[in-house]
Design a protein that fits this description.
This protein is α+β, with helices and mostly antiparallel strands. It has three domains: 89 residues, Pseudouridine synthase; 133 residues, Pseudouridine synthase (2-Layer Sandwich); 57 residues, Archaeosine Trna-guanine Transglycosylase, Chain: A, domain 4 (Roll). The protein is 22% helix and 33% strand. It contains eight helices and 16 strands. Strands 1, 2, 3, 4, 7, 10, 11 and 12 form an eight-stranded mixed beta sheet that branches. A four-stranded mixed beta sheet has the order 13-14-15-16. It has a two-stranded antiparallel ribbon with strand order 5-6. The model has no long low-confidence stretch (mean pLDDT 92).
Length: 301
């Protein structure tokens, strides 16, 4: 007999400010327990040393988590120059130290500019990417190093906040899959002195910026579950940049049965978000070649 999941059916997205020193999964479990949620998932890991925005999807919102995984990210990072570590951040042991000489603001600005646009990155060994079914970071802990293929990522914007006492603070707007540790290491190599990430804070995922820390969540939890639930963002906001299609009650019924439907004045191609005529979000649809809209991922509330 299948074991029934415990917890509430609560649906929505929480913008959580992950504290330093815990894993993304540990943060997720804390949020899940606080909401007494039956189902939860996060949308892209942050390293233990990193803080900042970790969107947590609860209930049916987990069906849309992939769209946040694919979203652009925004970071503030502190890079310490003159030193490299085994992990690319301050949790690793020092591999090499080099003098920081002849590096001024003009040289830094020139190097920074060279990293804007599409760049190739070799994923770090201390990452969750899998090699033959095993996460690279597990292999790294065993002292193993395997060959990794470079990946193309996009640095949309990269600016210098400050440079003082060998600490370079930068702001990064990047595509999914970008490793800030690797970016810091690569900048350090071009500067000729090496670098590692000594602090990292994710300030945004796509348009999401505001976030709640655990102390704030505990305060609302003390007021009751309804107060907690009111902190959740509607899941369809993940698709705010998509065109929407309004379905009559009859058409919504057929879509929920898995049928493609014809809708006047609908978009002629691509993906759309589906809403009922009373503004209830029911899922994602795709425009077929014949103009009908087929359900692709439905939300069950």
């Amino acid at each position: 007999m299948a074991r029934r999941r415990s917890g509430r059916n609560v649906h929505g997205i929480l913008l959580f400010n992950k504290p330093i020193g815990i894993s993304s999964n540990a943060a997720l479990q804390r949020v899940k327990r606080l909401f007494q949620a039956r189902k939860a998932g996060h949308t892209g890991s942050l390293d233990r040393i990193a803080t900042g925005l970790l969107p947590v999807c609860l209930g049916e919102a987990t069906k849309l988590s992939g769209f946040l995984l694919d979203a652009d990210k925004y970071y503030q990072a502190e890079c310490t120059l003159g030193m490299t570590t085994t992990t690319g951040d301050k949790e690793g042991t020092v591999k090499q130290t080099r003098p920081v000489v002849g590096i001024d603001q003009n040289k830094i600005d020139a190097v920074i500019q060279s990293f804007i646009g599409p760049i190739e990155q070799i994923p770090p060994m201390h990452s969750a990417i899998k090699h033959k079914g095993q996460a690279l970071y597990k292999l790294a802990r065993q002292g193993k190093v395997v060959e990794r293929q470079p990946r193309t990522v996009v640095i949309h914007a990269l600016t210098v906040e400050s440079f003082e006492d060998n600490r370079l603070k930068i702001e990064v707007h990047c595509s999914k899959g970008t490793y800030i540790r690797t970016l810091a290491e690569d900048i350090g190599e071009v500067l000729g002195c090496g670098a590692y990430v000594s602090a990292l804070h994710r300030v945004g995922v796509r348009k999401y910026r505001d976030m709640l820390d655990f102390e704030m969540l505990e305060h609302y939890a003390s007021l009751g579950l309804e107060a907690l639930d009111n902190l959740l963002i509607p899941m369809h906001t993940v698709l705010s940049h998509w065109p929407e299609v309004i379905l009559t009650t009859e058409l919504a019924y057929y879509v929920r049965q898995g049928h493609a439907v014809q809708i006047p004045f609908a978009p002629t191609n691509g993906w759309v978000k589906l809403l009922t005529d009373n503004a209830l979000f029911i899922g994602i649809g795709e425009v077929l070649d014949d103009g009908r809209i087929a359900p692709r991922r439905l939300i069950n509330l």
